[in-house]
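job 3f2a | input accepted
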Amino acid sequence: MNPQSRAVRIPAGRVWLDGDLVAPRPGNGTVIFAHGSGSGRRSPRNREVATLLNTRSLGTVLLDLLAEPEARVDELTAEHRFNIPLLTERLLAATDWLLAQPEAKGAPLGYFGASTGGAVAMIAAAERAEVVGAIVLRGARSDLGDSAAALIRCPTLILVGGEDEPIRAANARTMRLLRCEKELVTVAGATHLFEEPGTLEQVAERTADWFDRHLPRTPS
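job 3f2a | predicted structure (220 res):
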């Protein structure tokens, strides 16, 4: 775990969500991560991206979108991992919680969504358009969030593996629906999980550059 990180518990209706918070340097933004199906805050891919954001003085929240009992059930039945409305409610609860924290109050906010978490980030960004300053989607099931695409106001970066054909097609459709500042980057040679050498590093660098550019600093 990042030595700057502290464990947090976030209220979300009747449940509590576990997360790891790294506070931003004063005046900088914080990025909340929405993981993909069957994953969570311990995802090594998301942690690699978050670590680079932290070196750029950005804060991060790595978050379990399911409470621990729900996650145990989901491991057996997979009944929650594609429940986009439920997961979106959880991301919105985490957003509202973060905005009330001293470390992030009044500072810019971004989302990083992977796989199904990409759809969750899209819908949440549309619903909190007044506070979400930028989003990045990695290997995103953007087709599950296309109903919100035209309502997203903030700059949106989509990163997709060059060998991930179904997701490339879905992301291309989403790009046509987005009305905000947008960019689609295809990472050559990468499959859905970006496990090929050097591909996840490209994702992390592109993500950090995007948030550097689009999450404005506030006076410290």
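job 3f2a | Residues 48 and 197 are 14 Å apart (CA to CA).
job 3f2a | closed
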